[in-house]
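Notebook entry, structure prediction.
Reason for the run: the old model in the group folder had no record of what sequence produced it. Starting over properly, with the input documented here first.
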Amino acid sequence: MEEILLIGNPNTGKTTLFNNLTKSNEHIGNWHGVTVEEKRKKFKIDDKEFELVDLPGIYSLTALSFEEQVAVDYIFKNLDKLVINICDINNLQRNLYLTLQLLELGINTILVINTMGNKKFYNEVNLDKLQSELGIKAIIINADNKKDIENLKKLIKNQEEIDNNIKIPQYYNLFSNFDDFFKIKKVININDNMLSNFITIKVLEKDENIMKKFNISYEISDKYVNKIAKIRYDYINFISKRFITRNKHSAYGESKLDKIFLNRFLSLPMFLLIMATIFYLTFFSVGAYLSSFLGDFIQNVLGAKLIGFVSQICNIPWVIGLFESGIVAGLGSILSFLPQVVLLFLFLSILEDSGYLARIAFSFEDIFKKVGLSGKSVYTLLMGFGCSATACLTARNMEDKNSKIKTAMLTPYMSCSAKLPIYAVLGGAFFGASNVFVVFLLYFIGVVVAILLSMILEKTVLKSKSQSFILEFPPYRVPKIKRIFNIISDNLKQFIIRIGSVIFSMNIIVWLLGSFSFGFNYIPTDGGISMLESLGRFLSPIFVPLGFGNWGATSALIAGLVAKEIIVSSIAIFNGINASETSVNQQIQSSIMNPNSSVFFTQSSVLSYLVFCLLYMPCIATMGVLNREIGIKWTFISILIEFILAYLISFIVYNVYNLCLTYGLGFILILLLGIFIILFSIIFVVKHLKSKDKCKLCGYKCKK
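New structure, fully documented this time:
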């Protein structure tokens, strides 16, 4: 079986081509870190089997980040493999820089020029002359077009094996004229002449990764770096003038919409407005209607039939309780939120595919720099709104170690989709239609806390170095129906698998611990205190200052460490919610307002609880990823900080909200303003007293 490498710049349609060649459904995005490790999949051309390896996007064979180093290392280990080098037809001049380096290495390459979008925006390429000039096979395709994919397969099948007469770019001999070229080549001492020449060039370019990889120590002047780049770009300009005709409409990524979305005053308000609209559609209106419909179907149709069937066959109380409270009521409350989870992923994917999120990353770059992060962090943090564990993996693409640690540590503060049921059920019980503002506030709190924490870490123990940030603006475009369907089906599959495995098992364990005493007496019939209640009563005093010092709320938080979705189903179990004609979620909402329930709240304590659920320790899966990516030391520090911040902020929220209920919002705002003025005055005076070289007349520093 022959292995083929798929290589290209980010945002050239590389993953789209991988998906269509291998019939896969990998995530597609205009971001660093979408592919952080090689992905491989088998496919057939007639009767012959191939394995396509999708490498992370790179701009050249000089790696500037983790995922680029993954790609470069893999290329050097597989110099004898066929390479599909994909380029964007409207960015061919920049994309060819990588192509030339592949040719310098003598790699057997097929150049695939991808067309994306409306044909009237394409540049024109003289394919025959370009093939002749570069000495490689080339093809122009639309990576989403089945016919074009078949044509590419034919080209792959007919591609000849690499030979010793492979054509090297005509500028290549210019490199050997550099003074240090042959001196470095002697130090390298590699038998393969082509590889030896290429490594020599990379040393002249001061490629530290290459020098370290091949154990080369040589002092190099900076003068060669720009000279080598200029030689390559001069050749690309030569190709461009002769073989590429620029279309006047092909200004890639430029749009009149950017006057709004990239406006320094409008970009942030527009982003907040768009996100608020998404939350409203997800948690209320469309999302709420679909969740209610699905919940009623699960409970009144599927659940009722299951419980009726079990009751007829076996009338043992604990068996009926297992199916009624542990399975139907527990899992039913989680499954009913499936539409909202899918909607959130759908909207975020539409924003990404439309080209909007790339602009947001650019807009936030300056803000992120000030708090010690990079625009690259935007993708990781946005992924945190889906799944924290998956998002933390993408933090490895940071070339700066401290930025990587910070980004991974901050990701759990982004409210993941697993917390949606908590906000919808608990918040909906006390705030009704106004819960949309509560949910938006929770997401906002998570982001603000992450930014403030990053500022503190940047000023203290995790000072970041300057990082490169290259991001292309794709044109604004309408996401394709096929793409939307793939997103929905993929997330639906993951959600159901998660519920059918971890959440189902944990739900049963929670029901078991909450329904039986240490003497294994079944509590509903025999009475007594359950095992989980005993643990909850022991720990619950810790949370009394936060307003939710009852054992059920505490035990639900413990269960939530496995998966945050379990918090809602645990509350259903603790409060004895059974499947009935009334919606399970409605029963939960009624029960948590009753002081006699195992889990109960007031309006102020539920707000405190929601904030705590937002900020406290992440799920076990995320902890495992953090441990693997940033080490046990920083993982422990991260978890400790999260718990402390969750406790402090929940304490503040609980007490401030109670004060607002007692004295009114105006009173509290004036009080806070007064405190702020006092603190500002103290800080100002302290700085003034410490300052030297002050003017003797006014006490301030000035030229006079």
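Summary: DSSP finds 29 helices and eight strands in the chain.
The old model has been moved to the deprecated folder.
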